[in-house]
Amino acid sequence: MNRKLSPLATAIVLALSASSAFAQESAPASAPVANTLDTVIVTGTRVSDRTVAESQSPIDIITPEALQATGTTELATALARALPSLNFPRPAITDGTSGVRPAQLRGLSPDQVLVLVNGKRRHISALVNVNGSIGRGSSAVDFNAIPIAAIERVEVLRDGASAQYGSDAIAGVVNIVLKGSGKGGSLAVDFGQYSAGDGKQTQLSGDTGLPFGGDRGFLNVAGQLTQQDETDRAGPYQGTSPNTGNNPAIGQVAYIYGDPKVDAAAVSANAGFAFNDHINGYATAIASNRDIISFAFYRSIGHNPLVPQVYPDGYVPEINQLSQDRSLVAGVRGDTDSGWKWDLSYNYGYNHLAFHTQNSINYSLGVDSPTRFYDGALEYTQNVVNADASKTLDWGLAYPATLSFGAEYRREKWNQSPGNPDSYTSGGAQGFGGFTPINAVHSDRDSYAVYAGLEADITEKFSAGVAGRYEDYSDFGSETSGKLSARYAFTDKVALRATVASGFRAPALAQQYYQVVTSQYNASVDRFFESGTFPATGAVAQALGADALTAETSLSYGLGLVLQPVDRLYITVDAYQIDIDDRIVLSSNLLLGDNPAAQALLASLGINGVTSARYFTNAADTRTRGVDVIGSYSIPLTNSDLNLTAGYNYNESEIVRIAPNPTELTDLGADLRRIGRDEEGRIEEGYPRDKVTLSANWKLAQWDFNLGATRYGEFTTRVSETGNPANDQTYGATWIVDASASYRPGENWTLTLGADNLLDEYPDRTLFANSNSGQFPYSSQSPAGFNGSYLYGRISYKW
Predict the structure, then answer these.
(1) Beta-carbon neighbour count of residue 208 at 10 Å?
(2) 664, 544 in Cβ contact below 8 A?
(3) Please, what CATH class does the domain formed by 7-798 belong to?
(4) Are 31 and 645 in contact (CB under 8 A)?
(5) Global pTM?
(6) What SS3 string covers 536-593?
(7) 339-349 tens-digit pLDDT
(8) Of 340, 595, 599, 606, which is least packed with CB atoms within 10 Å of its CB?
(9) How far apart are CA 758 and CA 82, in angstroms?
(10) Where are the domains of the chain?
């Protein structure tokens, strides 16, 4: 009987077939990451000498050389180019999200991946992404607050790990390991610009290692200063109603649509000290400031009678964010004569986002209105106290078993502070109105966790592990998660690994309490409107059918094949399925402006002028299935080395259940859906289904040549219920080629010239109906951005 395979099954079969052929022919394929098989890993295991090759879960090791070879000054962009399963689009005109952009792993929400630094939980950003970008509704870690110059390597665990690390580790774990040497150092100057003539970037970065206390202590200090100009790929207005609302004159380019302007400084310090042969102290501190200017919708001279008096040509409001990010981890670890290892640590994280709107106006204040407004601030604080213990147990197995257990206390705070009254009075500052005193929030919660694990090599060929975690939160209750993992080596060249894990993610405090009213634009109906985001437990959301948020839970499965068929060739094929129940999403914009009953309801609650509302909800269950194929192959040549890498990710998410619409919404109108087709599209099709990465590094005595190519698969955007489904658009696949050459005139100096997107490729142009009359020619969801070719140079010195 002939049966048609599903797209996922077809992808797995093709991947396995390709891997088999690759192994037989020894063809030069490999991974987008520099996988070193004998590298000892610290992520996803408590065994002290577990290597990449021996891991029971898929692990990628990304070296600093691989990060620098991308040419970018941003950590998140570098990771996206190195990992097939990581997506980092560059949204524009999305308020705070334009400056603090989220990344997603395996097609899941950005807050469903846990980020560690030196194995300790990294705090999330204070920002909650509420506009129409990938990651809408998430509060995630800001990767770009961490200086690349400080990084020794990045370990990426592509597996559920809530049982080991707690909340957020549904899609996987990214562990950023900082440099820990007490000697040597580097200094580099980078300069680049897009071929279109804008987006100039400069960066000064470096690190140095310093010993102290004889050979007992080390301090590694790193830092970087970055300046980035904005890019603009907006098109001219091609509509029929010039100078009305947000429309400029016909043929005029008025918007700024692209990357924000950024001035950033970051510094880190990583230190360790051996008090004696059994006790060591350690500390890590990272601090960064980023001054970000992104851009709102253009206001034409027809937007308000005051505009021609203050801005004769119309104006583009600017959203200025100052992100202040601080973290400190300090601890003591050691071992005893009886074989116990222990670790006590304190972890502090803090992010403060202050918002200003500039080049703006509050119409209610007349021609004397300020043009710059303080809009308020968002603030997140994390305090964690952690105690771990482990011991190897000789049970007569092939290798001693490792027992581990620990406890953790975490306290979180999230605050929303109001702006200056001028920023919110009577409609507020245009572009981004300030937070009002009614919006002010001071929230906090505590959580307690206990966890344990056991790992063992039961035989020479078979290893297995089990882990469990119980966690209790003060605001919604408790969750228990567990994980089973195993690996069987048929031979030295072939091994099979598998995992099954339950997990959870606690609703972020920002998701529970964020409240704001701001200006939005709906391309489906070509309308500007005031949109309100309301807390699920607040009066407005409750009147619209909201329920208090609970934790989302997951069950994931992984099955992988590890191949080392010939020397220097390493291939892994890992298939996975991740089921998430009660997934936390931000509802679609509920358009209430033309609904008299809804307007009366809002007015009764003291809300006037708001024509769209939304709130967070647990109303969806999703299933994600995919496969990762990773390989690396090195070829030693005469007086040189050639390293070839390749990677492939296929990923498919579907919404398997949407809770019935609450009666409160149904009573207001049949077209009001809590999760509309636009949000369904973001979850299911808004990112590439597949991604291919290929790269080659040829290393000679004085030269290095890098060539890479990435194929981003197609993605789709859907319009909302009020739009025309014919305007749904699928964007075709895109190949992006990167190249660089480095010359070493001496032992210490390196000179580099390179080009990202060498062939100056752009994504498909957006349908005119979705482009704001031609002014937004490219989709903000494009995984490779839409800026074109970027040319750069680097001068570096190492000692």
Answers:
(1) 18
(2) yes
(3) mainly beta
(4) yes
(5) 0.91
(6) CCCHHHHHCCCCCCCCEEEEEEEEEEEECCCCCEEEEEEEEEEEEEEEEEECCCEECC
(7) 999 999 999 99
(8) 606
(9) 17
(10) 7-798
